[in-house]
């Protein structure tokens, strides 16, 4: 219980789980950076006491599961970095409680595909980075609710070489899209 705490940074920990009680009375916490560790799961309600959190970075852990309500309470979160973990899939509602999310980086995981509704409740999303996963297919209309989207990265994946990325993939977001990095790049029509 540290009511004045605004930032937490931890690296090389043996922490295997974060419980919601870890952040009781941490209402001013704005940044949490957890690098290199043994976390395997983000459970529902883990961050419910962190309503002021704006930046969450969990990198180089062993996270393979994000429960649907793991980010419940993070109504002010704008940046989410889950880099270099073991995620193979993401529940379609995992980011549903993050209405102000601007930046999401899921690079260097083992994602194979994403549900078309993964980002449907994130209308302020500006940048999505899915680089260096195992994605073989991008669902049509994955980013249809993101009118603010300006960057989308999905290089170093296993995308089907013949897949076409037409306007239907970015419908609703194409007005602001300034960076599009897809490999292989077969076709893109605005």
Helices, strands, pairings?
Layout: E1 7-11, E2 31-35, E3 41-42, E4 55-59, E5 65-66, E6 79-81, E7 103-105, E8 127-129, E9 151-154, E10 179-182
Parallel strand pairs: 1-2, 2-4, 3-5, 4-6, 6-7, 7-8, 8-9, 9-10
Number of DSSP strand runs: 10
Q: Give the percentage of residues in beta strands.
A: 15-25%
* Terminal-residue CA separation: 51 Å
Report the helical percentage. under 10%
SSE topology string: EEEEEEEEEE
Give the number of helices: 0
Low-confidence region ranges? 185-190
Largest sheet, in brief, is: 8 strands, parallel
- Counting helices, strands and paired strands, the structural category is mainly beta
Side by side, the strands of the main sheet go 1-2-4-6-7-8-9-10
Mean pLDDT: 86
Instruction: Give Rg in angstroms.
Output: 17 Å
Global geometry? globular
């Amino acid at each position: 219980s540290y009511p004045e705490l605004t930032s937490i940074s931890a690296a090389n920990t043996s922490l295997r789980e974060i419980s919601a009680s870890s952040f009781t009375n941490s209402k001013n916490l704005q940044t949490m950076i957890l690098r290199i560790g043994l976390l395997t799961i983000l459970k529902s309600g883990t961050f419910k006491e962190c309503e002021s959190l704006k930046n969450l970075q969990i990198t180089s852990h062993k996270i393979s599961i994000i429960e649907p309500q793991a980010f419940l309470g993070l109504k002010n979160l704008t940046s989410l970095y889950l880099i270099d973990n073991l995620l193979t899939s993401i529940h379609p509602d995992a980011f549903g409680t993050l209405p102000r999310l601007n930046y999401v980086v899921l690079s260097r995981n083992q994602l194979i595909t994403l549900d078309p509704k993964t980002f449907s409740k994130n209308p302020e999303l500006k940048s999505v980075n899915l680089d260096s996963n195992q994605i073989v297919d991008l669902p049509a209309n994955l980013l249809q609710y993101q009118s603010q989207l300006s960057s989308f990265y999905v290089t170093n994946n296993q995308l089907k070489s013949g897949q076409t990325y037409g306007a239907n993939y970015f419908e609703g977001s194409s007005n602001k899209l300034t960076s599009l990095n897809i490999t292989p790049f077969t076709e893109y029509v605005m």
